[in-house]
Amino acid sequence: MNTKNSHSKKYCIFGTGGFGREALVCLMDSVGASPRTIGDIAVFMVDDSAYDEPEVMGVPVIKRSVFSPEQYQVVVAIGEPSARKRVVGQLPPDTRFTTIIHPSAVISPWVDLAEGCIVTAGTVLTCNITIGRHAHLNLHTTIGHDCKMGDFFTTAPAVNISGNCQFGNGVYFGTNASVRQGVSICDDVTVGMGGVAVKDIKESGVYIGNPLVRLR
């Protein structure tokens, strides 16, 4: 697991929305930067059409058209998995992605985090866990032993996932959702706030309730 953030290139956070700004705070805590110094090591990036201010929270904002992979290491801080996947696919093929981990996160040495992940404050990852590329683990997420999550996995705050779970790509869990031990979930599933997964999900879609039911 890579728990150290490299300082060889400036950090570039794609997105200035709510989670983008939260990712900046996470970065500041992880590298020990202050509001006065964070602008020296980080920038925000947005699509050219979304550019409307040169600075957010004291950090410069650049347009995607001027982005240079040689200068930056990137995290894509867009909460919606399919939108995040689209942005990742549109960036140059030689883009270097980094991972940001808040210092309060509890992560054992037996956790494998792929590139581009953002792990926020209070997250707990126990052991023998694999998490795919560009995952977002929001505040106070917990994941138990022997879990495997695909690319673009996303949790809102206070999600609790028991051990031996297997999730596909693009799975999203809303605030306070939870998963029983041993549950498998296919690609592109969204679980609403407070949803409880007690059995395998084999069909993509949006699920709500306790136990979960699929919206049709």
Automatic annotation (TrEMBL):
Domain PglD N-terminal: 12-90
Superkingdom per UniProt: Bacteria
Similarity section: Belongs to the transferase hexapeptide repeat family.
Name assigned to this protein: Acetyltransferase
